[in-house]
Specification:
Number of domains: 1
Distance between the termini: 35 Å
Strand order of the largest sheet: 1-2-3
Order of helices and strands: HEEHHEH
Structural class: alpha+beta
Number of helices: 4
Radius of gyration: 13 Å
CATH topology: GMP Synthetase, Chain A, domain 3
CATH architecture: 2-Layer Sandwich
């Protein structure tokens, strides 16, 4: 068990990269080793996908040493609004 929770990751992303929306799902049956995330932040504006992922990975650098797998989808607030409108 890694001891890392989705809530801890969510709080850090909201604080560090000013994420407006973070949805993290523990895909490892509660052991905290595999997470799936949707992250919406204005800091993603003008950044390509790789740069967005680097920003998240750098923010969670310490946690990534323990987490086995971290899958993410990153959106700007404008992209997120469009996604929500199309659901």
């Amino acid at each position: 068990m890694s001891g890392i929770t989705g809530k801890q990751l969510e709080d850090k992303l909201k604080t560090e990269i000013e994420a407006e929306h973070v949805s993290i799902t523990d895909m490892s049956d509660g052991c905290g080793a595999k997470f799936d995330a949707v992250i919406v932040s204005p800091q993603f504006e003008g950044k390509q996908l790789l740069a967005r992922h680097r920003l998240v990975n750098n923010t969670l650098q310490e946690e990534m040493k323990i987490i086995h797998a971290f899958s993410m989808k990153t959106y700007t607030p404008e992209q997120w609004i469009k996604i929500k409108e199309n659901q």
